[in-house]
Design brief:
The chain contains 19 helices and 12 strands. The protein has 596 residues and is of the alpha/beta class. The chain folds into 4 domains: 114 residues, Acyl-CoA dehydrogenase/oxidase, N-terminal domain (Butyryl-Coa Dehydrogenase, subunit A, domain 1, Orthogonal Bundle); 107 residues, Butyryl-CoA Dehydrogenase, subunit A, domain 2 (Beta Barrel); 156 residues, Butyryl-CoA Dehydrogenase, subunit A, domain 3 (Up-down Bundle); 162 residues, Butyryl-CoA Dehydrogenase, subunit A, domain 3 (Up-down Bundle). The strands form 3 sheets. Strands 3, 4, 5, 6, 7, 8, 9 and 10 form an 8-stranded mixed sheet that branches. A two-stranded parallel ribbon has the order 1-2. Strands 11-12 form a two-stranded antiparallel ribbon. α11 packs antiparallel against α12. The chain starts with a strand and ends in a 5-residue tail after the last helix. The N terminus is likely disordered.
Length: 596
């Protein structure tokens, strides 16, 4: 594999064929003082204004959620991504990601504020005309107006372009007349501004800006949901709805550009919100474990509970490492595009599109890490976890939607591999060369030595080999199945799981190594335990996913050779993960909160 010691990665998917160094990545330990202050402000806002009111929020108290969104706007938390010239903070992408994490523990409020700052604001910010931006963005940035977004329809969920809502130009040429409906519209019940998609003349998929009160625009009652009960979710109806022609957003017939580009950012921000929620759930769980006694001992003394606390923290800490690694890449790519003279509205969207693969992976892992955390959190609470008196019950219900939001996790897994292969076909990513090199390596004797005598030599080797396992499996699948691969969704999802595990393992290792390089090994003993536990599990899971994929498309000598190669590429030295997890849990128990 090619070394990138002299350059930063500014190409999506390039981590798979390049070796990164700790100095090249950004970690949460690199936050500036200002960023830490902004994060603390988010936490303080949740603790003061949101968490004491979660029951009132869940009960749908009239006007409460909009008032909380306005309060967040007064603190500047809604306009982090908005330029100062339009009333925002003009902060970098890492900072806006940190705000999404900081507000992520707010249950239904987090959903409302994420929808407002993301899909409710960004389409107009990045695709609006100057007049549209001046009219809407300053009021969205302060929370005076609330934003919403209408894409999903009864018959089109993952297939967004299958929408049936139509738009027809009026006889006088002044309006588009919309007819149709949208479903599952977050903030729909109280929003002032909506980005809505319809097909002009039944064909040209186009975005429009609608305002509350427009003629022919109505909404249904609030949906009764399994979780996020306090967030507003309604259907929108358009019956000869008159939308001024100046409210067309972006280019006619190119609404998909808006929908799909905004989703890239939304996926990463959802990963940030799930990270914040995971940290809150771990804190709730350890506080309970330290106070709940069974057999005359706090249950935090028992190994079974310590395993859960440690594993919850491992998943969370690793997700955090991958999240901010990617967020910084997007920042750096944005700067690179700006230096090329690209228009301001194209820089962030172009940067997010560049790392769309990583955004999809983050969304899958972040949402599934939170699902694991809250599930084990309920288990730690025992019967009380099933009671609404404890927030872990709410966290459990609220977490489930995240595996559906921003494209289901199945769709995001398929996209991860599809985008990687399309980049290779377009020459943006050289996968063929490294894949062929791995094939040649399979024909040679394995190298049992390791010249690297650094503290993490085995971990570096494991990750390099996991990358080879991906290249071997994906390369053979493409060769064997060619144009039919897209129909083999199970194989694609196996390969996606291998990629997600490997990217997160590498992110964790680089984060730990960076801390060691800065402050010494003794400063990062728990981080080393977290990293080794994750890699120890990851190599087995990569082996399982690779085996399932290979067995699905290969047979005979080819199958045997690849399975032997997979076994070679998924080795890791014997490691006492029980003791490592106990050390991790001890830190959490002592701190009585998520401490990392």
């Amino acid at each position: 594999m090619e070394s990138t010691a002299a350059q930063k990665i500014l190409t999506g998917g390039a981590w798979l064929i390049n070796e990164s160094t700790p100095a090249q990545i950004f970690t949460p330990e690199d936050f500036s003082e200002e960023q830490i202050m902004i994060r603390d402000m988010c936490v303080q806002f949740l603790q003061t204004d949101v968490l004491p009111n979660v029951l009132r929020i869940d009960n749908g108290e009239q006007g409460l959620m909009p008032s909380l969104v306005e309060k967040a706007g007064e603190l500047g938390l809604l306009g982090a991504s908005v330029p100062e010239s339009l009333g925002g903070m003009g902060k970098d992408f890492v900072t806006s990601t940190l705000i999404a994490e900081g507000l992520g523990g707010g249950y239904s409020f987090s959903v409302a504020v994420s929808a407002h700052t993301g899909i409710g604001t960004l389409p107009i910010l990045y695709f609006g005309t100057d007049a549209q931006k001046k009219k809407y963005i300053p009021k969205l940035a302060t929370g005076e107006w609330k934003g919403s977004y209408g894409l999903t329809e009864p018959g089109s969920g993952s297939d967004a372009l299958g929408a049936k809502t139509t738009a027809t130009l009026s006889a006088d040429g002044k309006y588009y007349i919309l007819n149709g409906q949208k479903v599952w519209i977050t903030n729909g019940g109280f929003a002032d501004v909506y980005t809505v998609f319809a097909k002009i003349d039944g064909e040209k998929f186009t975005a429009f800006i609608l305002e509350r009160g427009m003629e022919g625009f109505t909404q249904g009652p609030e949906e009764h949901k399994m979780g996020i009960k306090g967030s507003s979710t309604v259907q929108l109806y358009f019956q000869d709805c008159k939308v001024p022609v100046e409210n067309v957003l972006g280019e006619i017939g190119r609404g998909h550009i808006i929908a799909f580009n905004i989703l890239n950012i939304g996926r990463l921000k959802l990963a940030a919100a799930t990270l914040g929620a995971s940290k809150y759930a771990i804190t709730d769980s350890v506080v309970y474990a330290n106070t709940r006694e069974q057999f005359k001992l706090p249950i935090s003394k028992f190994g079974a509970i310590r395993y859960k606390l440690a594993q919850m923290a491992i998943r969370t800490w690793v997700a955090e490492a991958a999240l901010y690694r990617t967020a910084k890449w997007i920042d750096e790519k944005e700067e690179s595009l700006a230096s090329e003279g690209r228009p301001e509205n194209e820089t962030l969207l172009g940067a997010a599109e560049e790392f769309a693969i990583e955004c999809a992976m983050l969304k899958v892992d972040g949402s599934e890490a939170l699902s694991y955390v809250v599930d084990e959190g309920v288990q730690i609470h025992g019967g009380n976890g099933f009671s609404d008196e404890y927030n872990i019950s709410r966290a459990y219900r609220d977490s489930r939607i995240n595996r559906i939001f921003e494209g289901t996790n199945e769709i995001n897994r398929l996209l991860t591999v599809d985008m990687m292969l399309k980049r290779a076909m377009k020459g943006k990513l050289d996968l063929m060369g490294p894949a062929m090199a791995v094939s040649k390596e399979l024909m040679s004797l394995p190298n049992f030595g390791n010249d690297d005598d650094s503290p993490f030599a085995e971990e570096k080797k494991a990750i390099m080999n996991m990358k080879k396992a991906i290249l071997m499996t994906a390369g053979a699948a493409v060769q064997k199945l060619m144009n039919t691969l897209e129909k083999e969704q199970e194989i694609i999802m196996n390969i996606a799981d291998m990629a997600i595990l490997t990217f997160h393992a590498e992110s964790a290792l680089l984060r730990t190594m960076k801390k060691v390089e800065k402050s010494g090994l003794d400063s990062a003993l728990v981080e080393a335990d977290i990293t080794r536990c994750y890699i120890n599990d990851a190599v087995d899971l990569v082996n399982k996913a690779g085996k399932e994929a290979i067995n699905a498309f290969a047979e005979g000598d080819e199958q045997r050779m690849m399975l032997l190669g997979l076994k070679r590429f998924t080795k890791y030295p014997s490691f006492n993960s029980k003791e490592a997890r106990r050390r991790i849990a001890a830190k959490i128990i002592e701190a009585n909160k998520y401490p990392f």
